[in-house]
Structures are given as structure tokens and as C-alpha cells.
Amino acid sequence: MLTARHTLVYVMLMTLVVVASNILVQYPLQATLAGINLADILTWGAFTYPVAFLITDLTNRQFGPKAARKVVFTGFVVGVALSFYTAQPRIAIASGSAYLAGQLLDISVFNRLRRMAWWRAPLFGSLIGSTLDTMIFFSFAFAPFFVFFGPNDPFAIDWAPILGTFATSAPRWISWAIGDFSVKVTVGLVMLLPYGALMNTLKPISQAPTA
């Protein structure tokens, strides 16, 4: 009962992150960096979504992987429902698949590294989870091979200079994936600060399962 009450906080936080990310993904980042027009490759949702990994890791640390999976599945249900309501079915499938696979992999990696140096589990869990998340989402959503999920987006598969600046060209969705993953890595590193600050407060519950 104690675990259920406390994990409710994580469920609410995960829901908030998922809802915020679904809203903010509609707003491009209006800025330029090193000659790259960020509005062409990034939305504000790219900055809020990686916080989901922090929530998963904190749940895993305090209550174990079983509770973390429950929080992830709640976010999955909310995310898929919102995606099917606000986006095309192919994007919703890609978003839900990427979120679920990335978060569950994060839980698995975190659990394997939880007894090592404090930063290893959250860092490698989020980075490896983010890698899978990015690969699944952008492939499912835009790669021509996955056309069975829905029609291809001509603009996404049209070739253009990578990140709009390099001489080498690739389908636009490749640049979107590079930009998105770069943000996830950056936010993942930044999220070590709140994780480190909270880890002594949110100590593991002794009865929390670790498998």
C-alpha cells in the first residue's frame, strides 16, 4: 500500500511529461546554432520528453523495476491515446513503440548497473534507452521500408543536406533524428544533476524487488 501511494506521484509526473511533450512537439525551436536552423530539426518537445527517463530511473531506484514498469505502462497508455487523437496513425504507432521500447530498455540497463557508481545506472540507462527510442521512432515514422504503418511523408524522405549545412545529403528525417538524439544526450547528462540531488532523499525501499 505504501509503494502504491508513493508510485502514484511518479505516475502523475510521467503523465505530465507525456502530455507536455505531445503538446510541445507542435512548436519548432526558433533558434540558430552554428549555422543550423534549429526550427528545421527540433521542437520544444525534444527537451521535455527525455525527462521521462529521469522519472523512470527514480522510480526504479526507490521501488524497483516492477514499479518502474507500471509507471512506464501508464505513460504508454496516455501517450498512445494522445498520439492517436492528435497525430496520424503511423506517427502514433512510432511514438508508442519507441517510448515503450526505450523506457523498458532503460529499466533493464539501470537494474543491471544499480550497484555500481551512482551515475552509471541513470546515465547509461537513459543513453541506451534514448538510442533505441530514436531509432524506432524515426524509422517507423518516416523510413520508406515501414510504409505498411502508413503512407510515406514526401517531405521527410526527400533528400537534403544533413542538418541543412553539410555537403553530404540524406533524407530529411535523418537530420531530424540526429537533432533529436543530440538533445536527448544533452538532457540526459543534465538530468544527472537532479538525480544526484534526490538519490539520498529517495532511498530504495528495502522490500522493493530488483528483478
How would you explain this protein's 3D organization?
This protein has 211 residues and is mainly alpha-helical. The protein has one domain (1-142, 175-200): Orthogonal Bundle (Arp2/3 complex 21 kDa subunit ARPC3). The chain has nine helices and four strands. The protein has helices spanning 2-24, 45-48, 51-63, 65-86, 89-113, 120-142, 154-157, 172-190, 192-198; strands at residues 32-33, 36-37, 159-161, 169-171. The strands form two sheets. Strands 1-2 form a two-stranded antiparallel sheet. A two-stranded antiparallel ribbon has the order 3-4. A hairpin with a 7-residue loop joins strand 3 (159-161) and strand 4. Helix 3 (51-63) packs antiparallel against helix 4 and helix 6 packs antiparallel against helix 8 (172-190). It is globular, with a radius of gyration of 18 Å. The protein starts with a helix and ends in a 13-residue tail after the last helix. 39% of the residues are buried. Keywords: Cell inner membrane, Cell membrane, Membrane, Transmembrane, Transmembrane helix, Transport. Involved in the import of queuosine (Q) precursors, required for Q precursor salvage. One of its GO terms (cellular component) is plasma membrane.
- As a percent range, the share of helical residues equals 55-70%
Terminal CA distance: 20 Å
How many beta-strand segments?
A: 4
- Total count of helical runs of at least 4 residues: 9
Radius of gyration: 18 Å
Which strand order do you get reading across the main beta sheet?
A: 1-2
Order of helices and strands: HEEHHHHHHEEHH
- Strand percentage lies at under 5%
Low-pLDDT residue intervals, each spanning 5 or more residues: none
* Backbone shape: globular
CATH architecture annotation? Orthogonal Bundle
Q: In terms of structural class, how would the helical and strand content be classed?
A: mainly alpha
**Biggest β-sheet, characterized?**
2 strands, antiparallel
The average pLDDT is 91
CATH class designation: Mainly Alpha
Count of discrete structural domains: 1
CATH fold-level assignment: Arp2/3 complex 21 kDa subunit ARPC3
